[in-house]
Amino acid sequence: MARCSIAKPLGGTTTAAPHHPHRCGQLPTSAAASPIITTRTRRLSALSKPPPPSLPLFPRPKLPIPTTSSDAPTNGKQDNSKELNTVSSRPSSGAGDVLRLMDVLCVAADEDVYISLLKNSVDTSEVATVHAHIKGAAFPLPLPLANRLLLTYASCGDTVAARKVFDEMPVKNAFTWATMVSAYSDGSLHNEAIRLFSCMMCHEDLAADVRDCSIVAVLRSCARLGELSFGEQVHAIAIKARRVHGDTGSSLLQLYCESNRHDSARQVLETMRCSSSQLEPVPEAAWTSFMTACHRDGLLDEAFDVFRDMVSSGDARSSFSLSTILAVCAESEKHGWFGQQVHADAVKHGVETNQFVVSGLVHMYANQGRLADAARAFEGVGGKPDVVCWNAMAMGYARGGWYREAARMVYQMKAAGIDPPGVNVVRMACAR
């Protein structure tokens, strides 16, 4: 009984178990071992984490951007928002990035690299960056690179920088002069273009190798300024160089048409027809310019003769020339049958659904009182009719006395969201 009374109660306090250091695998229970367990646990948890995402392939290098003293913050703290706004507002300069990267890598740029960067430049800032790098590297400026630099400045519309490069070039060829003349003409500096062309012709070697682009540019300037006498001198130069063909002939013809010299324009056209070949026929722009000038001055018979010569020459006809002659047919009272032939020619060339051609057909048939044919031409337009087609059809109905149809066209135009000025005229005609 005494042995049974010494049994431990269930809820009583128990003594710690004796420590047996010889047992293996039993972890120590002392407080000093807790940091070791925590460190191992952290290492195991760190190993179980997924790896970080990989960086994108070929990231753009963060190149140093030069800053000025005014850009630095005055209070010693960086204004990140201001920096982000400044960087986002700047246009991207791929040429500048390439050149800075080459400088960081200590790679010298050669002529081919500069020419390639200039070809891909899209604005004046990129061209100026490449130009400044060429000057800073003390790189010699050969003629091909100088011409490319001049052409890129001219293409971006910076005639001041282009002229500065032009004046600094020690050697110039015909391409250099032609580029500068074209830059002045494209920039509406027509007096400068004519003056520079005159200086170019003072050099015998350049006069013998005059370029077509320079002749076209100076003729365009002569037409804008009305300098017919200087244009005639350029015409003599073109005849001497046997360049009265292609774009040069078209520019000469346009000069004479704008100066109301139809006889001279006709001579230029005949010269172009005689010198043309299958490789370079008379451009459609030349025929169209002459027909437009005849239509403007009321020479309708002359316009018909020009179109007949165009057809007999076998030159290609598109919607531009066909719409031009259709406008002439709309005002001619004795050539109604000619418009039908032009309509057939449009069908033959597959441009009868062109909006310009359809507008000309509707206007022509409406003026001739053939509203049914005008309606058929209007319904055959490809795609959505434009304002000119709607207005021509509505005005044709109103002038022909078909007031209900005219009113229906007005409502259809309103439903299509079109409100041209001719609607008021149609309303007045319908009110009568």
Characterization of the model:
This protein has 432 residues and is mainly α. It has a domain at 94-171. The chain is built from 24 helices and no strands. The longest helix is centred in the first third of the chain and has 15 residues, at 34-48. The chain starts with a helix and ends with a helix. Mean pLDDT is 77; it is low at 1-18 and 20-92.
Low-confidence stretches: 1-18, 20-92
Average pLDDT, rounded to a whole number, is 77
Shape: globular
**Could you say which structural class the secondary elements and strand pairing correspond to?**
mainly alpha
SSE order, one letter for each helix or strand: HHHHHHHHHHHHHHHHHHHHHHHH
- The number of helical runs is 24
How many angstroms separate the termini?
137 Å
Helix content: 55-70%
Strand content: under 5%
Q: How many runs of DSSP E, i.e. beta strands?
A: 0
Radius of gyration from CA coordinates: 41 Å
Q: Note the main sheet.
A: none
Pfam family, one: PPR
InterPro entries: PPR_At4g14850-like_plant (IPR046960), PPR_rpt (IPR002885), TPR-like_helical_dom_sf (IPR011990)
Organism: Lolium multiflorum (Italian ryegrass)
Protein name: Pentatricopeptide repeat-containing protein
